[in-house]
Amino acid sequence: MRPSHPAVTEGRATGSAGPRLFLRAAAGLVVSGLAAGCARAGAVEHPRPAYGPERGAEGANRPAPAVVERPGPAPAVEALPTEPVAIFELAAEAPRPWTSFRELEERVAYYIDYFTARRVEDFSTYLRRMGRYERFIRERLAFFDLPAELVFLPLIESGFSPTAVSRSGAAGIWQFMGSTARRYGLSVTSLVDERRDPIGSTDAALSYLSDLRQRFGSWFLALAAYNGGENRLERVLSAHFPGVELSDSLFWDVRRYLPGETREYVPRFVAAVRIASDPQRYGFDPADTDAPVGYEVVTVPDATSLDVIAGAAEVSQEEVEALNPHFVRGVTPVGRVTEVRVPAGRGFTFSLKYAEIPPHERVTFLEHRVRRGETLGEIARRYGVRLAELQEANPDVRPRRLQVGQRLIVPRGRLTQKVLASRARLERAGAAGSGPGTHVVEVGETLWQIARSYGVSVDELRRWNGLREDVALVPGQALEIRGRAALVYRVQPGDTLTAIARQHGLSAADLARFNNMDLNAVIRPGDVVRVPVVGVGR
Q: Do 85-282 and 418-532 agree at the fold level?
C-alpha cells in the first residue's frame, strides 16, 4: 500500500444518490428468492441474491452481523490530555488498543479543522458516499474481529470512490497497489481490476490490515505501514528502535523517520473517525448520505458488454457500471463464466432476456489503442466496421489528428469476438507463464517488434507459425505465441529490475516486458517477479 491523498483522480460516476439517512446501521441488504434462469446451452445461471434494502429467507443464511456500538462523542480537542487516554468512548466489552497523547491530539485538532473548514465540501461528499458501503464493511469487520472504527479508513484513503487512483497508482476505496492486491488474491488485469470493487476488495484490505497489526503489534504502526509500506517501516524499526517494545506510543517516535504523508496518516485517520462518528457535532448533515448498495449476482458465460447486461436487466448502463466498477473496459472477460451484479430485483428479468441474446451480439464494442501511422480507415477495416460507424462512436476524435496511444471505441464488427478471444488467451498465457497464446497482428507491425514484445526470437515465431522468411504479415493475422517457462523470484531488499535481470542473464528491458512492467517501475521487497527460463518451454 502506497501513500495516498484525499485529492484523488476519479473515473466514471459511481451511481446516483439514493434516500439519505446517514450512518444507518439498519440499512439492510436485499435478498429475494428468484426462479431459476432459462435452461439452454451456455445460458446464465439463475441470479444469486446478495445485498439490498431487506433480508429475505436466503439472506438469513449469511452470518448475522455483529451489533456494532457507535463510537461516542470525542472529548473536546481544546482540552488536551497530558496522560494517555482512550481515543474513543468505547463499550467495556469491546476495548480498542488505541491511545492518545498531547502531541497526537494537537495534530488531530489540526485535521479536524482542515476537514471541517478548508475541505468541508469534499469531506461532505466522502461522508455521503460512505453510506453505500458502510453496513457491508461493518459486517466484515465484525467477521474479522477488527475494530469497528476501521470502517472510516476509506474516508482518508479514497473518499469512498471506487474509481479513485492516487498519484502512485493505488486504486479503489482501499487504495491497493497492484503488487499488494495480487498478494491478497485480487485480479489486476487490463480488463478486470478488482481493486476497484468495493465489495470484493474489502476482505483483502481487512486481511492485510489484520496481518499488519499482528506483524507490528500496534494499530498506529499498522496504519503507518498500510500507508507508507510495511518494509519501509520494518527498516526504520530495525535501524532506529532495535529491541524496543512495539506500541502505539512508539509511533510518535517513529514518525520522524517516515515520509511526510505517512507521518500525518494516523492523526488524519483519528480526525476522520471523530467527525464521522458524530457528523452533526462538526457541522455535517447526518441525513446527507447515499443509500446502501443493493444488488443481485448473476453470471454470464462469456465476454459481455455492460451495456448489454444493462439492457437485459432493463436498467440503465450507469447503474450496472456503478455496481461493477472493476470491469474497467466495460466488458467481462472472454472464455470464462463471470459473476456480475445487477440492481436488486432485476436478476430474474436479466436471466430471461439474456438467454435470448445471440452470442455474437453480447459484445457491442471494444477498445483500440492507436499505433504510429494508423488511420481511422485502416482501423475500421481491421475490425470489420464501417468508417462512418467508427466516427460515430468517437465523435470527439479528429481523423487527421490521431495521436499515438489514443483510445478509440470500436463498435461491434465481424472480428470483435475474434480479437477479444485472442487478447484473453494471450493475457492468460502471460499470467501463467507457459502455454500458447495468440497475437493479432496490427497495422505496421513486424515479426521483430512482436518477438521483442514477448521476449522471444524471430526464429521462434517463424517456427511456431510455419512462416517462411519471405512471407509478409497481414493485419488481423493471428500468430501463436508459446509462453516460456518461468521461475518466480521474490524481490529482496536492495533489488532492482536491472540487478535481477543481470543475475539471470537477461536485459532489464526484456525482464520488464516479460512482467508487463515499465522499465522504471518501482519494486519492493516481497514483490514477485517472473523470470523467463531461457531454452525451456518453447
A: no
Q: Where are the beta strands (DSSP E) in 272-331?
A: 295-300
Give the model's confidence band at 345: pLDDT under 50 very low, under 70 low, under 90 confident, else very high. very high
Q: Is 384 exposed, middle or buried (0-12, 13-18, 19+ CB in 10 A)?
A: middle
Kindly report the CATH class assigned to 85-282: mainly alpha
3-state secondary structure of 43: coil
pLDDT digits (tens, 9 = 90+) for 184-198: 999 988 778 999 999
Cβ neighbours of 70 (radius 10 Å): 11
In this prediction, residue 455 carries a pLDDT of 58
Between CA 45 and CA 344, with CA 327 as vertex, the angle to 5 degrees is 50
Cell numbers 448475522 correspond to: 64
Exposure string of 506-515, with b = 16+ CB inside 10 Å and e = fewer, is bebeebbbbb
Domain 418-532 is in which class?
Answer: alpha beta
Tell me the pTM.
0.61
For residue 254, give the C-alpha cell. Answer: 517513529
Q: H/E element holding 409?
A: strand 407-411
**Confidence band, pLDDT 50/70/90 cuts, at residue 43:** very low
Taking all residues of the chain, what is their mean pLDDT, rounded to a whole number?
75
> Does residue 18 surpass a pLDDT of 50?
no
Lowest mean pLDDT among 36-45, 147-156, 174-183: 36-45
| DSSP characters over 414-455 | TTHHHHHHHHHHHHHHHHHT-EEEEEEPPTT--HHHHHHHHT
Q: Which residues contact 503 (CB under 8 A, 6 or more apart)?
A: none
Domain boundaries, the chain: 48-62+294-359, 85-282, 365-414, 418-532
Spatial distance between the Cα atoms of 435 and 450, rounded to a whole number of angstroms: 17
Residue 76 amino acid letter = A
Rounded-to-integer distance, Cα 165 and Cα 13, Å: 14
Q: Which of 521, 526, 532, 517 is nearest to 496 (CA)?
A: 521
- Residue 69 to residue 7: CA distance in whole angstroms: 30
Task: CATH number for 365-414: choose from 3.40.50.2300, 2.60.120.200, 3.30.10.20, 3.10.350.10.
Answer: 3.10.350.10
Q: Which one is predicted more confidently, 281 or 485? A: 281
- The CA angle 115-117-123, to the nearest 5 degrees, is 35
Statement: residue 406 has pLDDT above 70 = yes
DSSP class per residue in 93-136: TS--S-EE-HHHHHHHHHHHHIIIIITHHHHHHHHHHHHHHHHH
> What's the confidence (pLDDT) of residue 54?
36
